[in-house]
Amino acid sequence: MPVLRVENLCKTYAGADEPACCDITFSVTRGEIFSLVGPSGCGKTTTLRAIAGFERPDHGRIECEGRVLDAPGVHVSAEKRGIGFVFQDYALFPHLNLLENVMFGLRSMSAQRKRERAAEVLDMVGLAKFGHRRPHDLSGGQQQRVALARAIAPGTKVVLLDEPFSNLDAELRASTRGAIRALVNRAHLSVVLVTHDQEEALSVADRVAVMRKGELLQMGAPEAVYAHPKNTFVAQFLGRSNLLHASARGRSAQTAIGAVQLDREAQGEVIVSIRPEHLLMEPANGDTRYGTIISREFKGHDLTFTVRQQGDEYLVQTDWRCPLGVGERVRMKPTTQAAVVDRLPEEQPHD
Amino acid sequence: MIPAVLCGAAVLLPLGYLARRALEVDMALVAERILPWSTLRELLGNTLLLTAGVLVITCLLALPAAWLTTHTDLPGRRMLTWAAVLPLAIPAYLMAYTLLSLSGDYGVANRALGVRVPPLRGLSGSLIALSLYNYPYMFLNLRVALRELDPALIETARSLGHRPGRILFSVYLPHLKPALLAGALLIALHVIADFGVVSLLRYRTFSYEIYSRYTSAYSPTEAAWPALVLVVLAGALLLVEAGMLRGLRLDPTARGVVRRRRPVTLGLWALPAYVYIVLLMLASVVIPVATILFWALRSEFGRLAGDLGSALSASVRASLPAAVLATLLAAPIAYMALRYRSKLSFVLERLAFVGYATPALAFGLGIAFFTLRFEVGGEAILYQSLTVMILAYSLHFLAEAVGPIRSSLYQATPRLEEAARSLGAGPFETFRRVTFPLLRNGLAVSTALVFLSCMKELPLTFMLRPTGFDTLAFNVWDKTNDAAYADAAPYAFSILLISASFVGILLLQGRARS
């Protein structure tokens, strides 16, 4: 039973030629972290703001916990939705201290009870002692936790997070991921978060949806979307990828680096995606089909090689102990199935 | 929206009437008698000479002070920053009063100290009075620019072989250009519009000419021409500044990490620095205050007390409504300019500044013309009415009210309002619990600033006051003009007290917020 359901959501801003988001459909279940990921301007924030009620959709339907929030002729205003929102810049009220910030959304209870509830939620995010500080006195990470506490204090079950990682440094990102996950488990929240950072999306979400130019391109578990991108954009946005021309017959195909297994049936000329870490290199001992290593980048946890073969360049990621060096002739071999990807109008395979 | 458009119309209307009145006259008559070339040349020459002189002196006074407070380890530089802004509390005509009552045979200097200072009138006196009043504006502008100067720029210049003397010209001055221009524009507008100083010290600028024609011959039409030229001059200044600033972008090209500046160690050089500061403080604050006190103690308080009370009441009765009105008008203008960015809202915000940039004497004259024409039942009911004077005050000082509201609106972002909405607060509750509390400070500061400016205001009061409505400022001017320095002193002292207390309140608020 989904907690939040978005159907055929469309929104075009006044004066814009292209819709900001178009025909977006997804649902989120209890206790799930759902991530909308895409480059800036892809419509992910518009979608989030429509769910919160800050934007009114042109078409489509939004339901939350069985209530219709948006439908033709229906628009519940933001303050009546009971959906929490955490802004990219946190938007803590600067004239109120932390306790008062968290108390802001609490209604129909005594002042004493409000205070207790706010303290309880602040404690949940580990800031119990800071209740009387002003937002200005806090670090970015602390401010974000307060914003989160403020959003869930009224007992909110659905929380929307706009770019929760963008203003944090690397270390804080990790702890924020942990904090969000812990809160979801503890308060049985459903979370929709928006990010342009594919790594964050993949690591924190239970399911991701990749967006581009207002369209939702692919949705699924992070592993599935990463391993089986359906089109060239998703393949390249979620990580590095080699795009190869292939002639397919059923579950296998011929490519410039040899025969590969495919993740789905295909016939004729197709494009396949192979991740750099799914390629293996061996010294080319007298093979006729070989490539030459033209660069080697040591990254600590792994090594990335660029190999040129017949005018095309390929990325190969190996274990850090790989002894091969620039100039050596190698043969490349896929270690797993290649993903068959559709070509989007503007996307060209560059390899 | 509607109040903003009304403001725009109300600012432009008097200027239209001014132009109309001026252009009614036969052009041959203008060239021959009203504003012949020789007169125009003299007025223009005097006005520009005074402006240029004040600009040079204020730069020379402000640059060292700004540098000392931002780039050095001078002990007490925070105090110095406040001290350097203090002259803003002493209106220029009080500086003129000081010069007049200090110098000459009967001056304080001769009577109290036995030092005979030659009479400071005309150009020299005007230069001193206007420079000492205006240099804080330059100081504040330069201070901000110097504080933002990336130390790496200076280090780069040094690593490329520039010696300190050369760095002044290769890095400092180019970087300070926008601040210098902004400060210069503000000061130039003040100088060409100044009425109090040039009328008391008898220096023949456009303002002086408007004043003397308006009073002596009582021929308003003859005053219209110099007023029109003065308005054109102010417009030209704005255009020149806009042209010089175009394409000038000096914010850092890349957002690298800007390091904290290591202050210059002054060592023994601190001594001449202090001498400089003491002299500056002496001239701009201590001597004016001491002079006013000297005369105030010699005045017949008993005789003046009643008049002083009614003058104070007149000032407050005009200033308080004007301050509230200006704030009420400024709030929608600032809100629109920030939230609904469009060509129209931009133009309206600029219009608020036109009211400020228009020389007050010319603005007042235009309003006088308009109110003379506006008759109900054969009577010019608006002419010299308190309502019109209050309206003129608030339009003239509208720009002062926009600034603080604007900056507090920056704090009250749409995000905060949306956050409140998502927490269940409706539009009205959001305004009451979030937007208003954040705006409150800005509104208070705006009201206070405009109130203070109105209490000190002279040229508009001079042009528009109802007969017998003698404010504090008008009394100071009137009695000084009659060389009754002792009689003027209690009024001058009252203005000083009010200014100082307001500056104090603003400082306290600034500290409470930071």
Q: Which secondary structure elements does this structure contain, and how are they paired or packed?
A:
The complex is a heterodimer of chains A (351) and B (514).
Chain A (H helix, E strand, L loop, with lengths): L1 E10 L9 E9 L3 E5 L6 H9 L6 E6 L2 E5 L2 E2 L7 E4 L11 H6 L7 H14 L15 H13 L5 E5 L7 H18 L2 E6 L2 H7 L2 E6 L2 E6 L1 H6 L4 H6 L4 E14 L2 E17 L4 E5 L7 E8 L4 E7 L2 E7 L10 E6 L4 E3 L10
Helix pairs in contact in A: 3-4
Chain B lengths: L1 H22 L3 H8 L2 H35 L5 H9 L6 H11 L5 H6 L8 H27 L2 H9 L4 H30 L2 H6 L4 H12 L2 H26 L24 H29 L2 H39 L3 H15 L2 H14 L12 H11 L1 H14 L2 H9 L4 H30 L2 H6 L7 H10 L3 H29 L1
Helix pairs in contact in B: 1-12, 1-15, 1-16, 3-4, 3-7, 3-9, 5-7, 5-13, 7-9, 8-9, 9-12, 11-12, 12-16, 13-23, 14-15, 14-17, 14-18, 14-20, 14-23, 15-18, 18-20, 19-20, 20-23, 22-23
Averaged pLDDT of chain A, please?
90
Categorize the overall geometry of chain B: globular
Indicate the low-confidence ranges of chain B by residue numbers. Answer: none
Percent in strands of chain B = under 5%
Share in helix of chain A: 10-25%
Strand content of the residues of chain A, in percent? 35-45%
Number of helices of chain A: 8
Task: Please report the two chains with the greatest interface, counting residues with C-beta closer than 8 angstroms to the partner's C-beta.
Answer: A-B, 25 and 18 residues
Contiguous runs where pLDDT drops below 50 for at least 5 residues of chain A? none
Distance between the termini of chain A: 44 Å
Largest sheet of chain A: 6 strands, mixed
